[in-house]
Design a protein that fits this description.
By secondary structure, the chain is α/β, with parallel strands linked by helices. The chain is 46% helix and 16% strand. Helix 10 links the parallel strand 9 and strand 10. The N and C termini lie far apart (79 Å).
Length: 420
C-alpha cells in the first residue's frame, strides 16, 4: 500500500515536508561525471562529444544529413502526423496570446522611460529520444517570440532518428540538429553551438549539466525534473480517473511523484487498491509500480483549508481538482505549474493537445517559477531619455541619494548635466 500521511495531526505538516524533501534532495543519483564531461567538451569540442556519445549511446554520427531526415519523416505514420498537426495548431494559438508589448512612459518634464522586449538570438532545445510533444512545447513559443536560430539536440535510438521529432523540427523550421544526448548535449549547445539559452526536459545528468553551464548561457527559471501530479478528490470522485492519472505521471520514471489528497479516507484506500489492480495492464508496469512505492502518497486532511495548505506546500508540477465543487479550491491554490479543473481535464491531455505548455517547474520550483512561456525567449532592455528640465528636477534628489551613499562620482556625473 502507498504511504499514508494524516495531515490533520499535530506533526502532519512536518511529516509531509520530510516526505517531499527526501525526494527533492535526490542524494541517490551520482552526477559527478558531469563536471568532467563539460570540461572535456569545452576544451576538445566535437572530438570529446563523439567520445562520450560512443561511450554512452554507441553513436558516432552526431549530425543527420538532409536525406536521412527526409527519409525518416517519410516513414512517419499518418495518424501521428495528424495528431502532431492538431497539437501544433492549438499550442501555437494559445501561445500567440502571450505576445508582449513594449512599454513607454513620458512624464510632465518630457522625460521618456521605455521597456523593450527583444527576442533571444539563439536557443538550444534539448529533447529526450522520443518526446515530440516536448519539442512542440519548447520550439513553438521560441518561434512566436521571434528567435531566429534554434538548435535541436536529440539523441538517436539504436542509431536511428526519431521520425516524429524530425517532423516537428521541420514544421517548426529548425535547421540545425545534433544527435547528442545527456550532459554532452548540454555542453555541446553551450560551448560548440554557443547558443544564448538552453531549454527542454531531461534526466538528472541533463539537469546537472544545465546548472553547471548557467551563467555562460541561460536556462529556464524553473527546475524541469521528474514529473509530478497532485490530485484533490472527494467521495464522489471517479476512482478510475484518479488512479489512471496517478499511473500516467508515474510511468514517466521511477522518480516521478503522485499524491492523492482527500477528506474521505475511503477514496484514498479505494484508489490505492484500484491502481494496484490495473498495474498489469500497463507496458510500463514495473516503472509505475516502483514510482508509486517510492514516491506515491495518500494524504488525509480534515478540512478544505488543510487541503489548500497541503497543496501549496507540495507546490506540484501538475494539479487535478476532481471534486464536486472545484470552485472551493481553484482560486486558492497559488503554488502549481498547471491545474486541470474538473472530471474532463486530465493532466495527460495537457501533455499533448490542450494548448497549455507542459514544460513546468518540479521539485517545489512552482513556488517561484512559471511554466515555459514566451517571456522565456525574450530579454528586456530598459532605456531612458531625459530632457534638460527633467534632469534638473529629478537630478537634485538623485544627487542627494548619491551623496548619502558616499558615491561622489555619481553625484558629480549628475551635476555635470545640470551645470552644463
Amino acid at each position: 500500500m502507498m504511504k499514508i500521511i494524516d495531515f490533520s495531526k499535530k506533526n502532519g505538516k512536518k511529516t509531509l515536508l520530510d516526505f517531499l524533501e527526501k525526494r527533492r534532495s535526490r542524494f541517490s543519483v551520482d552526477t559527478s561525471v558531469v563536471d568532467k564531461i563539460i570540461k572535456d567538451i569545452k576544451k576538445n569540442k566535437n572530438r570529446a562529444v563523439i567520445k562520450y556519445e560512443k561511450k554512452f549511446s554507441k553513436n558516432n554520427k552526431i549530425k543527420p544529413s538532409k536525406n536521412e531526415i527526409y527519409n525518416t519523416i517519410k516513414s512517419l505514420d499518418k495518424k501521428v502526423i495528424k495528431a502532431i498537426d492538431l497539437a501544433f495548431n492549438r499550442i501555437e494559438k494559445f501561445h500567440k496570446l502571450q505576445k508582449v508589448t513594449n512599454i513607454k512612459f513620458i512624464d510632465s518634464y518630457n522625460n521618456k522611460i521605455e521597456y523593450r522586449h527583444l527576442p533571444l538570438k539563439s536557443v538550444g532545445i534539448y529533447i529526450p529520444a522520443n518526446l515530440p510533444s516536448s519539442l512542440l512545447m519548447n520550439a513553438i513559443p521560441a518561434k512566436i517570440a521571434g528567435v531566429k536560430r534554434i538548435v535541436l539536440a536529440n539523441p538517436r535510438t539504436n542509431g536511428k532518428l526519431n521520425s516524429a521529432i524530425m517532423y516537428v523540427a521541420k514544421k517548426c523550421g529548425i535547421k540545425e540538429i545534433i544527435n547528442v544526448g545527456g550532459a554532452q548535449a548540454i555542453a555541446s549547445l553551450a560551448y560548440i553551438q554557443k547558443v544564448d539559452k538552453i531549454v527542454g526536459p531531461g534526466n538528472d545528468f541533463v539537469a546537472k549539466a544545465k546548472q553547471k553551464v548557467f551563467g555562460q548561457v541561460g536556462t529556464e527559471g524553473m527546475i524541469a525534473g521528474p514529473s509530478e501530479v497532485t490530485i484533490i478528490a472527494d467521495s464522489k470522485s471517479d476512482v478510475k480517473q484518479i488512479s489512471t492519472s496517478m499511473a500516467a505521471q508515474s510511468e514517466h520514471g521511477i522518480n516521478s511523484q503522485s499524491i492523492l489528497i482527500s477528506k474521505n479516507k475511503n477514496i484514498l484506500i479505494k484508489c490505492d487498491l484500484f491502481l494496484r489492480n490495473i498495474l498489469e495492464k500497463f507496458l510500463n508496469k514495473k516503472t509505475i509500480s516502483e514510482s508509486i512505492n517510492k514516491n506515491g502518497l495518500l494524504l488525509y486532511a480534515k478540512s478544505d483549508s488543510q487541503i489548500i495548505q497541503a497543496v501549496n506546500l507540495i507546490s506540484p508540477e501538475h494539479l487535478e481538482i476532481l471534486t464536486t465543487n472545484t470552485n472551493k479550491f481553484k482560486n486558492k491554490i497559488y503554488n502549481a505549474g498547471s491545474i486541470g479543473i474538473g472530471a474532463f481535464s486530465p493532466v495527460a491531455a495537457s501533455d499533448y493537445t490542450v494548448g497549455t505548455n507542459h514544460t513546468l517547474g518540479t521539485l517545489g520550483s512552482s513556488k517561484f517559477a512559471s511554466g515555459l512561456n514566451l517571456n522565456d525567449f525574450y530579454k528586456k532592455i530598459s532605456q531612458f531619455t531625459l530632457s534638460k528640465k527633467g534632469i534638473e528636477v529629478i537630478g537634485k534628489e538623485a544627487i542627494t541619494l548619491a551623496e548619502y551613499e558616499n558615491l561622489q562620482a555619481h553625484a558629480l556625473s549628475i551635476k555635470s548635466r545640470i551645470q552644463g
